[in-house]
Design a protein that fits this description.
Length: about 525
Amino acid sequence: MLHFILPTHGFHCLKLKNISQIEQAASLARPEFFRLGFALLFIILIIFFAGMQISGVAGGFMLIAAAVIGGYMAMNIGANDVANNVGPAVGSRALTLSGAIIIAAIFEASGALIAGGDVVSTIKQGIIDPGAIGDADTFIWLMMAALLAGAIWLNIATSLGAPVSTTHSIVGGVLGAGIVAGGVGIANWDKMGMIAASWVISPVLGGVIAAAFLYLIKRSITYKTDMMAAAKRMVPILVSLMAWAFATYLVLKGLKKIWKVDFPTALVIGAAVAAVIYVIVSPLIRRAANRLSNDKISVNRLFSTPLIFAAALLSFAHGANDVANAVGPLAAINDAILQGSVINKATIPLWVMLVGAGGIVVGLALYGPKLIRTVGSEITELDQMRAFSIAMAAAITVIIASQLGLPVSSTHIAVGAVFGVGFLREFLKSSYARMIDEIKSQHDGKDEPQIEEFLLQFQKASLDEKSIMLRQLKGHSAKAELSKKERKALKKLYRTELVKRSALLKIVAAWIITVPASGLMAAMLYFTFKGMMLP
């Protein structure tokens, strides 16, 4: 009897274990099925919505297909690109993930619908000559191939956790499909050269400006003995500078399609806004600082509210500008179907803009958290001061680049700024480690308590006081305790801890292959469409 009971018991245990594993796997897959189902529901709504617009329109079913692809592209923009605007605020804990998604959704949609404009260029960045395209049907399938390729590439990049430029995705798609439709001569290679240059210009500018602002904050506030007194002086000035930069940025970029303003006027408007903000925030900052302790954590708290406003304003400007990546080709297809010809400028019907705005919000809510975490916490650790510096870099870099006529990517700027503050932290940590080594070397042979007391005083000292303490030690120089090999190992440890090299390599690789990847996919899709649909 015992012979039969034991195997049965083992069998039941194994069976229960397998059931438990199956239930666990099912619970993990459930959110993914929910997201996929909701995305499919949105696509179905687009089909019905677009179907209401095609009554009596020849080729109306092509317009429905284009609307579906445009909605798919908009969802991928929301999933990938919006993370740049709110990721640093989430990573620094100025905003919760849910709060960031709500704010971004409201302001992205508002930017698209209020300031997205009534007209859009049919060929993004003027990279191909629409006059070289033979007929409206060829143009329609070219744009559909470009839009679908750009969307697929964004989808792949999002699944890999790589923030890439949506503009470059659609540019690559238009270029690839355009070349197979009209030959190599159809491309504007000067424009493509400028876009390729932006792969370097955007992240470098963003990184340098973000690092400069972070260093300014450190020198003027956190390196001072009385941080709160310094914060009372500097934080209102820094917030006013942010107001100046963002007001100028919004007037020049976010509102450019409904209100044309030249650069000097935009600067004056920004300065007026900054003056008002300074008057408002100065007493608020003073009252808040009086209730806080004299440490970096307290200084960080003073930047939380400005970061929330920055995330909202960046989202508004992004919605106003980058929704064109989804609705531009769709509007061009709509005009080509209605007018039967290829044109350089296409009007944007309200239903087309609603597809773009709705897609961005749906994509952000369903798939945005992954990229928000990547930008906010998986590259380098962010606090509010670092996130503030990144937001400043995002606005100022776009302003500088637009006045110099340089093509820049908001994605590349934001991610470059994140790396910029990370590399500055590495440099400062390594420099501080060398200072500690020097102090220990100057005290070589002394008692350990005396060394620890001096290090404690050194840690509490301001930057100027640290410099004086180091100069005082140089008259008693002795051989350093750490070898050159040990110092290199320490420097490598700091570098590994503060900036993830694997994230850097993955993101840079994704940036480099964005245009070729989307271009190759668009060329293949165009050949497929041509074989199925074109004579």
